[in-house]
Amino acid sequence: MSTNYGSEVPAEAPISRPLPGAHLADPGPLGLAAFALTTFLLSVVNAGWMDSANEGYVLGLALAYGGVAQFAAGMWEFAKGNTFGALAFSSFGAFWISFWWLVEHDAGNLADADKAVGWYLFAWGLFTLYMTVAASRVSLAVLAVFVLLTITFFVLAWGKWATSDGITHVGGYFGLATALAAWYTSFAGVTAFTFKRQAFPVYPRT
Length: 206
Description:
Layout: H1 28-46, H2 59-79, H3 83-106, H4 113-135, H5 140-161, H6 165-195
Helix pairs in contact: 1-2, 1-3, 1-6, 2-3, 4-5, 5-6
């Protein structure tokens, strides 16, 4: 004789899990701001607005803000599950730390500094180029940053190889444009939080 009496075992309710890193604030505005400010001050030198002998004034900023703060933003992007942001911010944070080391410790010891630094900039340009492809699915604001940065790296590399101040100055102007685009994107991100809406457009692509 059956003892079921027609009762059914209720199905288990689906378990709701929060999104990865949902408890974390958006690290994007920090990473972009750190990148923008450091890029702007170095580009002031590259554009010829300040004598290159004063390039050292950006080194502390490159280490602390462009480097450490931006790298930290990349780690928080990992926690939030954002592969693009994690790769971009941690990589460019490491770039600024390596730039600080290069200028502070290595540049004066290289047999052909212009050629070596040119290849250094060119390699970063290649990395930025393929990140530009990925950025095309993020937003138009982020895409603008990566397009301008790719051009900046390649033009600065060309300037080093050609030992041309004129070409380097062109690269510096592209760097200034890159910094402004990154600042705008950071500004749009932080005001989206404080205004509780996207007050300044970034034109998302996803």
